[in-house]
From TrEMBL:
One Pfam family this sequence matches: Arf
Keyword Nucleotide-binding appears in the UniProt entry: yes
Gene3D superfamilies, per database record: P-loop containing nucleotide triphosphate hydrolases
Record protein name field: ADP-ribosylation factor-like protein 9
Keywords of this entry: GTP-binding, Magnesium, Metal-binding, Nucleotide-binding
MF terms (GO), sorted A to Z: GTP binding; GTPase activity; metal ion binding
Record: residues binding GTP: G84, L85, D86, G87, A88, G89, K90, T91, G131, N185, K186, Q187, D188
Length: 248
């Protein structure tokens, strides 16, 4: 019966073809699953690797943004930044530091006033910035280059203490470890506040434990051939602080 035999062969061929097709599809499906698993695994590994790289970059950036105290000090120059409200006597004190006298009349600084002093192996630049309101916005820009901040205060004018305090604390908040020398100037004038009273009025007890801080009373004798001993003491103290900071 050829018809039956042909039908049987055709059925067998169809069954075989279907089986082969099923096997091929199964293998292809399994291969695709494995490839998909490989892709997923690769993506997971890449994601983990990317996360580690991001974490490393964050740690690196954090370390860069938060330098140690020693790194901050090493990055500074040899500059003494002299600031204070207008009329405090900054320019007269600088003249005493440089010349040792006040025989020459000086005018209030309008803008910037820089003088350099060489003593033994120490080179120091004193940079004074005017204390008028229009110049105070420039003060914070020069903190990074300073090794010592000298803030001069007119100790005889208590009405300006609150403004001086606000201005000073804004600077100290920007530089947590910058040494400070507060000069309570014009101690020879009537009504001048003493060092202890000024320390409390300026709230210096709250400026941080890691900061070197000194408060001295000074007075400038106009037209004198020799600086007052208090000015000489202040000058020597600033030099000592510069020396100690450079050595650290």
């Amino acid at each position: 019966m050829p018809g039956l035999r042909e039908a049987a062969l055709a059925g067998a061929a169809l069954a075989l073809t279907g089986g082969v097709a099923y096997v091929i599809w199964k293998l292809r499906d399994t291969k695709q699953n494995r490839e998909a698993e490989k892709v997923t695994l690769k993506q997971n590994l890449n994601a983990e690797k990317q996360e580690k790289l991001v974490e490393k970059e964050i740690r690196t950036e954090t370390a860069r943004e938060a330098p140690t105290v020693s790194q901050q000090r090493q990055a500074r120059g040899s500059q003494v930044l002299v600031l204070g409200l207008d009329g405090a006597g900054k320019t007269s004190l600088l003249q005493c530091f440089v010349t040792g006298s006040t025989e020459q009349e000086v005018s209030p600084t309008q803008g910037f006033h820089a003088v350099s002093i060489n003593r033994e192996e120490l080179h120091i630049e004193f940079l004074e910035i005017g204390g008028e309101e229009k110049f105070r916005d420039y003060w914070p820009m020069y903190l990074k280059k300073a090794r010592v901040l000298v803030f001069v205060l007119d100790s005889s004018n208590s009405t300006r203490f609150p403004l001086a305090k606000t201005s000073l604390h804004r600077l100290l908040a920007a530089e947590l470890y910058l040494p400070l020398v507060l000069l309570a100037n014009k101690q020879d004038l009537p009504g001048a506040c003493g060092v202890t009273e000024l320390y409390e009025s300026m709230a210096l007890g709250s400026v941080g434990d890691g900061r070197k801080l000194c408060v001295l009373g000074t007075q400038v004798r106009k037209g004198s051939s020799a600086a007052h001993p208090s000015v000489q003491d202040a000058y020597e103290l600033i030099l000592e602080m510069m020396n100690s900071n450079c050595a650290e």
